[in-house]
Amino acid sequence: MPEIKQLPSHVADLIAAGEVVERPASVVKELVENAVDAGSSAVVVEIRRGGMGLIRVTDNGCGIAPSELPTAFLRHATSKLRGPEDLGRIGTLGFRGEALAAISAVSRVEIRTRRREDAAGAALRLEGGVPGEVEEAGAPEGTTILVRDLFYNTPARLKFMKKDSAETAAVSGLMQHLALSHPDISFKLIKDGAEALHTPGDGRPDSAVYAALGRDFARSLLPVKGGGDGVSVSGFITQPLQGRGSRAMQVFFVNGRFIKSQLLTAALEEGYRNQLMKGRFPGCVLAVTMPVTEVDVNVHPAKTQVKFAREKAVFDAVYHTVLDSLAERGGPVLPASPAAETASNPRGDFFRSMDAKSYREQGTKGTPSAPPPKRTAPLPSWNTEQTGPMLSDSVPPSERPALGRRTPFPPLRGDAPASVLKPERTEAPAPPAARPFVPAIPRQDLELPGQEAMEPPKEAPWRIAGEVLRTYIVCESEEGCVFLIDKHAAHERINFDRLKAALEPPMRQTLLTPAALELGKEDGALLLENLPLLEAFGFSCEDFGGGTVLVREVPADLDAEDAAATLEEIAGKLREGRSPAERREALLHTMACKAAIKGGWRSDPAELRALVDKVQSGEVKYCPHGRPVAVKLTKYELEKMFKRA
Ligand code: ADP
Ligand code: MG
To answer: What's the whole-number mean pLDDT along residues 31-48?
Structure first.
């Protein structure tokens, strides 16, 4: 490596300023980037307590000359940049010359290093940025940096550190990205003494994907290669049927650097247009390569954003690579939306949505059960069988047993009822045909947007005239008003209120065969750290190792086939790292939505009745997102429309 020198101020001033060391993960990022820039073929990262206890990064790269060791810790000291002209052609991950200075300023650092050409290595300790003496020391070729007591001298920063588990998750995610972007380097992460990630570094992108993201994700991928106009694109994208619950699995590298980019996300998603179910996102691991002079990496202190000189060329390259690859594999495989059109509620029985207590009460009355509506068509599922394994021939067999892959959840009813243990009760609850009408308590009406306020029900239950577009219930009140009720929105609200008020945990269904859900290390860890919360929502999960979560029980009112997507979405919400109360609220939203009957499903008359009664009673006005659940048309309004009035 060239000599480490301090940048003159006119160059230093050109560098995007900002804080480099925000949290343990940012320390790990900078240190590993240095290891990569040093030409290492193996990098080992060890963290304790999410990095707050200790961070140790060991590489076998070029090492640092003993005489340059103190310089490396000065601000704006770098071997990667000399003059302003170099800023326009950065080929290394680092270039700011600030990381070692910033890290050592807020911690206790120990470095040991030896270059291949030196007989002896050198060691240096720094405390709060103040260096000791450089000492001669035995050291293997390469560099080891140990960071302890992070933020010990910045109590304000220390106070705002998240839980160790959140930091661990951040470090894991970061290591995945680094490992994926450099398949030629072997990365190992050891968390609190246990190996959490280990990539072979054999230069094969598929090996890196397999090792970093797990077998199931790897299997859901299609290899892609394309580009044009000076931009090349290669990597992997998910098959349309394997859409994800969030964008977390969209991984982009530009010239070997992991970045976040709305442009790349948009290009990817445009390539999938009309091929994914609503609310699902493609996943990818895509490496975009172009001349270094066409990417400005000096726009963000954490170097996670870039500016492209030719945005359109980049967009087109990614878009066409995705589009062509999807077309090549036999045209779009549309999720079974036509089937969903004709499907009745696969949950079968709307009344399972009652809380555990009323469920049990109903059950003990011994009402004869009505047969569940027959499922007429399967809904889109996670069936991985449909697509051949992508990596089966190329990747060494995993030590993990066959359970380690994402097994499709057995359907709840209809197709394979025997595979699911029913809730405690044997009979279905009574249909509420003869439910006594409960007069509503008069209250201040809330105005529905653009509509008149609904009146409290006075007399007879609204007559259900029918259902239109498989989404809206049409009803008529005694005094001659017409109501249109959005059945999904209404049910979502009912679920939300019920879950929110629930004193008891919801009913669960036990999966006869526990389902192994491979979420990736980061999301897996997040779920496992929140087991009590998941329990409260009716999921029983346990650690299966390597980012796989074993699901034994799911809430009774959740379609078992939706469980995988629901847990993924929950992991996404946990990742947002909000306060416990906000987190619970976000999870309530997810559960309420996932457990609700969907527009497009054919509904049982008893389901419709129950929804209408709830809306009529005034308990349900807005869905949890604030959209109205019902609109009202008065006789007068109808007459006006028909020019009768
Ligand atoms: P930058 O990476 O932006 O140059 P840093 O503060 O991260 O700035 O590092 C300063 C210099 O120290 C680097 O330019 C590099 O020459 C040297 N260095 C840091 N870490 C390593 C390492 N692991 N192996 C070899 N050299 C290193
Ligand atoms: Mg650096």
So the answer is: 96
Selected from 3.40.1190.20, 1.20.1420.30, 3.30.565.10, 3.40.50.300, the CATH number assigned to the domain covering 9-198 reads 3.30.565.10
Q: Which atom of ligand 1 is nearest to the CA of 2?
A: 16
Cα separation of the two ends of the chain: 87
Q: Is the pLDDT of residue 583 over 60?
A: yes
Cβ of residue 30 lying under 6 Å from some atom of ligand 1: yes
The residue ranking higher by pLDDT, 286 or 369, is 286
521-529 vs 563-575: helix crossing angle, rounded to 10: 90
Give the helix ranges, DSSP H, for 355-406.
356-364
The CATH code for residues 220-328 is: 3.30.230.10
How many Å lie between the centroid of ligand 2 and the Cα of residue 94? 4
Three-class HEC string of 551-588: EEEEECCCCHHHHHHHHHHHHHHHHCCCCHHHHHHHHH
Ligand 2 centroid–CA 330 distance in Å is: 45
* 466-630 topology per CATH: Ribosomal Protein S8; Chain: A, domain 1 (3.30.1370)
Answer left, alpha or beta for residue 597, where phi above 0 means left and psi between -120 and 50 means alpha: beta
Nearest of 354, 348, 343 to residue 370 by alpha carbon: 348
User: What is the per-residue pLDDT for 155?
Assistant: 84
Ranges for all domains in the chain classified under CATH 3.30.230.10: 220-328
Tell me the three state secondary structure of residue 230: coil
pLDDT digits (tens, 9 = 90+) for 600-644: 677 778 888 888 988 998 878 888 777 888 999 988 889 988 988
33 CA: nearest ligand 1 atom: 2
CATH 3.30.1370.100 domain range(s) in the chain: 466-630
Q: Indicate whether residue 94 lines ligand 1 (CB < 6 A).
A: yes
CB-proximal residues (5 Å) to ion ligand 2: 34, 94, 99
Residue (of 331, 234, 316, 220) closest to 270 by Cα position: 316
Cβ 77 under 6 angstroms from ligand 1: yes
Q: Which pTM does this prediction carry?
A: 0.57
Residue-averaged pLDDT of the chain: 77
In Å, what is the CA distance from 547 to each residue of 49, 199, 395?
A: 18, 15, 18
pLDDT in tens, 521-577: 888 888 998 888 898 888 999 888 888 888 888 888 787 778 888 898 888 888 876
Q: Is the beta carbon of 73 within 6 A of some atom in ligand 1? A: no
